[in-house]
Batch of 4 targets.
Target 1
Amino acid sequence: MRISIVGGGYVGLVSATCFADLGHSVILIDIDEDKVDAINCGKPPIYEKCLMELLSSHVGRDLRATSDYGSLVSSDLTLICVGTPPLPDGSADLSIIESASALIGCALKEKETYHVVAVKSTVPPGTTQNLVMPTVLKHSGKNASKIGFVMNPEFLREGLAVQDFMNPDRIVIGSSNELASDTVESAYRGIDAPIVRTGLIAAEMIKYASNAFLATKISFSNEIGNVCKKLGIDVYEVMKGVGLDHRINPYFLNAGLGFGGSCFPKDVSALIHLAERMNVNPVLLRSVIEVNEQQPMKIVEILLKRVEDIKDKRIAVLGLAFKNDTDDVRESRSVLVIMALVSRGALVAAYDPKANVSMRVILPEIEYCESASQALTDADAVLVLTEWSEFGDLDKEFDLMRSRVIIDGRRVLSCKDAEGICW
Ligand code: UDX
């Protein structure tokens, strides 16, 4: 099939590369010409496992990037993968998807045959039907008999995005149009997963509810973890017993510093905003965010109990990314912890295997180290904030510290005298 993807960010680039790997010919459209050039040179502008190899095996053959929206006319299916960043009030900013829909509509004016437009961006329920559809139809001068619309959410995790694309738990196809749904379903030919066919709005809600539920599991585990800490028991032992219940399952019950990233905080806030607009009081969802905002301070409280005055003290921070295997620091809980340390006059020495550069943009005032050993040298305490597996190998490196105050926010350390944030 000939597929065009609008938006060369995380979701767009991973989807484009994977669709090419499934045997389709793919055009990736992005207005950022530097990004287009980098992609056409096989250099993905984001760090993601396996993506570089996969991209370089397809680019220039069955995958090409361009800034020319007109090129989508030669495709059968267009997937919209542009960003929907949060607005200050927590709602989703739909301006990028609106302008992309208008440009897609303009391009489709020239198209004679049937075309399908599928939304893959995370959008509030109702967006595909009430914004994307009317905008594309208006700018194309066509009606819905000529263009079909689908909502096809993604569930990709950063760091595992290629694997998640190729091995999804389900493929959700929301549409009122069978032909359009069939077109999208055939694009996933070769992937073995249950197909969920539903309506446009339900498909949008499946995405939000899935992320909100995963975030709820994490905040629940952290709250239980805080109680376990007071009881002097290990929340991981507790959650092992809890997770064996098949109705609960053991995934996303890892207590720690809380959730970050470009999805959970944004999607839960957008859902809260949507519920309020619908006059539904989102008590539970608000608490999920409240627990997540407070949790990072728990590790600071523990530190202040162990090191009374941290002014001018060297505090090593291991882990800046919002999770392992990514250089992404968006909504990383590390930011809140480091700001709390800096505001108390601490000298922060930070190390992250991938995210030093991206965090330096946000927090230029702290020291960035090339290794964990460098950060630990003469440190008065260390806080582990991201679940990088390499931190699990640290042992004699802690001997470099001035005083051995070791606090683990992500259950990655194996040394016996590490204190856990909630274990
Ligand atoms: C998430 C969803 O998993 C994915 O399906 C969706 O498409 C996009 O949002 P991502 O943001 O990449 O993916 O990260 P994820 O692996 O889900 O982790 C999110 C945050 O939760 C991280 O900060 C992680 O450290 C934290 N987390 C995760 C926990 O604190 N405990 C857990 O048990 C799992």
Target 2
Amino acid sequence: MCGIIGFTGKDQAQQILIEGLARMEYRGYDSAGVALEVAGADGESRLDVIRRVGKVSGLASELESYKESSTCGIGHTRWATHGRPSTANAHPHVSCDGRIAVVHNGIVENFAELREELTAAGHEFRSDTDTEVFAHLIEDAYTTEHDLMAAVRSACARVVGAYGLAVVCADEPGTIAVARKDSPIVIGRGERGSYVASDVIALIDATRDVVVLADDQFAKLTPDGIEYTDAGGNVIEPEVTHVDWDLDMAEKGGYPHFMLKEIHEQPRVVRDTLVGRMTAAGELDIDELGLSLEELNDIDRVYVIACGTSYHAGLVAKNLIEAWARIPTEVEAASEFRYRDPIITPTTLVVAVSQSGETADTLAAIRDARIKGAKVFGITNVVGSPVARESDGVIYTKANKEIAVASTKSFIGQVVSLTLLAMLLGQVKYRLTTKQCRLLFRELGDTAEQIQHIIDTQGPAIAEAAKVCKDAHSALFVGRGMGSAIAYEGALKLKEVSYLHAEAYAAGEMKHGPIALIEPGFPVIAVATKSPTYDKTVSNLMECRARGAAIIVVATEGDEDIKKIADHVIYVPRVRDAFSAITASVPLQLLGREVALLRGCDVDKPRNLAKSVTVE
Ligand code: AGP
């Protein structure tokens, strides 16, 4: 979704805003803008609003010729929801008198009726956005409250929806009003002033001690301090969180793209996610479990709820939980889950998987499941994120900051974490012995080295295979069992970074329709690692080959036979089938990236996408 930022203090605001927005650009890059507070010649303050369609770099060049001095301002980088990408729809949005400006991350669900009411009251709207109602609502309230914080609180009380909001007002120089509901807001004090942003990455070089504002909380930022209040205006003391990762982790570190850097970080992610997870006695140690072993033993149904890549990690988990713990497990698209009234009882475990921990669909599904009495377990990459806070227990994937919009290292962290959860459920259900768990844990750890081996050896094979897809119009990914879960992730990676249409199918399904798509040279990408269904997958590939498909296969090292039916073979080390999702997904991540480069796409910031989706 969008990224918002604000600074008030001793330094010039525009550079701080631009740098922060550039770091949050993965949240949306349809347009960018700032509102800067400037002291007029008459000593009267005013707001200068500068906006530009496209990436933050465009706004930065626009500001090069801007010479005014300003030590207080707000900024925004947009992922369009209401109103197409345009200068008029770019944030900040201002009140009729231009003396109040707002930036917003989220959605105002009742904007149409508010807009109608405000228009009838004489307000003039200049954009098609939902957000603009905030500027006019605050303007309206300010005429009676004559206090920005009070005006912002009363405006928020009228709004239905999600908002991370920052507001400046020319009549209250140096003040930034902040409000939060279902959208991320972090706030911090540095030596040079007060900062607010949608993501700590935008203010980490000013401070590491931040407040993650909770829902229905507000903050008043001034150059000298920050005051937090609740919806009633009562002063509150929120908890301060210390951020333990550094900016280097959010830089490319010499790689051409974040996506490649993050793929190469995956061996570390496996190791870090497993650190301290098994005691000397061979017992799994998941200290943030939040559920007693008795409660886990009572679990008789599991739902894994998630979106996108996280959903695909769920497909892997289903295979493992059913195999090791024999608990019926469903994987559900979070956006569908709550609207289909699923069967939930107190012995139902809902596992919510989310890299960002702020995906609105997943959060809404968690809340619904809790109301229905389910136990909720979160798998997320962001400490203190809403998914973590709203779950009974949580496992943090130790992937650190993931910048590239296409998830890679977080997927591996999720699969490793879900594998641990499946092992734990197998242990509490007395289906996995400590000895078996110890063996599985050791082999799981070995996947770190195996990923490194793939990265070190398969580059040329992947580059050759990518050429098959460069000018294709569509591609099919196939696999069986664990292979089909990986096929779905492979297809998503290719789609989202190279814009090449791709679908995934269980290999056995091909002959029931999709095989009709195949014509000479049509790319079929198969996951055919050694597994109980290997032979069946090979015969399905033979059927595709017979129709002239260009076959690309991810196969197990030493499998020479597969070369007879494949045009390109990408080899991965031999692993237990249960762990093949970890090793076989890496070549498909790299393949997606290679094809994207051949097609001239922006690998880190694919069109129309954003790293976290905070609206339903
Ligand atoms: C995957 O590469 C995409 N970024 C997207 O599908 C993502 O997985 C989805 O939006 C879910 O995000 P989450 O894991 O942060 O909840």
Target 3
Amino acid sequence: MGTYVVTGSASGMGAAVVDRLRAAHHRVITVDIDDADVVADLSTAAGRRGAVEKVLAAADGRLDGAVLAAGLGPAPGRDRPSLITQVNYFGVVELLEGWRDALAATGAAKVVVFASNSATTMPMIPGRAVTALLDGDAERALKAYRLFGKNAPTMAYGASKVALSRWVRRRAVDPSWVDAGIRLNAIAPGAVMTPLLERQLATPGEARAIRSFPVPAGGFGDPGLLADWVIHMLSPAADFMVGSVVVVDGGTDAWFRADDWPRPVPARRLRGYLRRMREFRAVRA
Ligand code: NAD
């Protein structure tokens, strides 16, 4: 039986993943702001450092897998863009960087990060903020959100999930991760009925927007179904799965973006493509 760490374990999809792992007799180290083995506030750098260290100690330096589900939804409030940035982006990236060696120690670890279909279905997410996050610069990202006024938290949410998805895809193929046997992937849910969504539905303006959003399958997702996908992505079925963003959203992304992917490499990108070919050969030589 393996040892897994799950953040955002006290509620919603994280809690559903914990239930399934424990039912399969795995050891689970839970991390949340409350009601967890490791209580940590992931919105602060000190809280994130504490979570890294306490989990490493509890796991004895060896992790078979990690699920990063802690996250905040867009809600009104001046501090919200900053909180979203700290928890949703740095609360994943800093933890995983801190746990990399422990994941490498088991030789076949699996990591699942909770991204979102907001990354591809929400319009006008500022690219500058995404670049800033990938550069590790929260302040620059926050500046980009200010232009959006009361929509700043929504933009911060979308940008945090775009940056997270890109970070996953970049790190997943980096030799220091993939050659260590770590399989790093993301799941991108649509609207799933958890306390996070319930809170959004309790705000009349947000409820209208959420209920009018196209979901071809109808209704909302069930947290247990999403957890089933995560469990599959933690299993040996994911041995050849690297840097995938698995969209489970009732068809919203396909509705808006059917022709955007798969997209062949256009002629104007050929030079960059050939450069990546050379880089790969150089890394593997
Ligand atoms: P949830 O609110 O039910 O659970 C999130 C958990 O994160 C909670 O237990 C909460 O305490 C924890 N958390 C929040 N702030 C924290 C902090 N500062 N420190 C430590 N823990 C903190 O939400 P959920 O819907 O299960 O969401 C799980 C993940 O899925 C999130 O990353 C969310 O962005 C993502 N997601 C959710 C939906 C949805 O519709 N529910 C859709 C797409 C993506």
Target 4
Amino acid sequence: MADIKSVKTKIAAQIEAATDLQTLDDIRVSALGKKGEVSLMMRELGKMSVEEKKVMGPALNGLKNDLNALVDAKKSDLENAALEAALSSETMDMSLPVLRHQGTLHPVPQVMEEMAVIFSDMGFSVAEGPDIEDDFHNFTALNFPPGHPARDMHDTFFMSAIEGEEEKKVLRTHTSPVQIRTMINQKPPIRIIAPGRTYRCDSDQTHTPMFHQVEGLVIDKDIHMGHLKGVLMDFISAFFETDVDVQFRPHHFPFTEPSAEMDVRYERDGAAIKIGQGDKWMEILGCGMVHPNVLRACGLDPDEYQGFAFGMGVDRLAMLKYGMPDLRDMFAADTRWLGHYGFDPLLQANLATGLS
Ligand code: DAH
């Protein structure tokens, strides 16, 4: 019995003195393991008389249980202390940007952002308008008279009739109605771009029923076609991040006079299209001087104010810049396609370190 007491005191002191989990476990094994001190003492029971066993059996079991309890208590103390130490030394700054992320930015918002960066550097701001438009903003105010054949060319989606309203709303067929909303709500000088979704009932390899445009509008007292050409030439070289040779070709739009289309020089390099140099021309956008009828529809006096406007397809420019072969893939929401053509959402387009 005296032995049991001194063994308990000795081992309890060792347990108490342990400063790490490994040392604690070594102590446990040397006391309670198969060949441990306590286990060896228990083996002695076999040699004892029945009387002795009655006393020593429970005493040894008690010793074993007490030591196990002490080890368990010490173990949880040490684990808690280790956790406390880790919590106070390992810090985590939740305001830092993530290092690993899977999502990518779709090329359409990427390209819209690139355009906004270029035009804002030239003093433009970004305007927006609704996707569901009325006939006035989408057509009439843009000098498409009722019944004019140019309306049919727009393959318009009409909304169902709303009770009590005579006229059906449309899904805007272009971003040009934002010109009208801006001129009605804002006094010149005006310098805006309007990126957004547009809709036409059309679908094949180069057309999707929903697509994206960026509109531009500049109105002031002394704006002429030289400004139009300068802005668009600077824009297109900045966008393609290389010198791009362009030509302006006469065209017709109801809302501009004169009207033009701008073509860029390009060449084919195998399956790839290289923009900038070459012997072929590709149409890239429509533009012109805002028609006096459009200014009048917005309450502006054409003898006092003039300006220019332009409109371009974002999806097509994205395909040309980043080499995507099929327009329809753009809107298929395929994560493999997005993984390949998508952009790092944390690297925002800017003119200082490069757009893309
Ligand atoms: N709205 C025209 C379209 O969707 C594009 C366009 C052409 C816009 C000439 C303009 C412009 O502002 O001046 O086909």
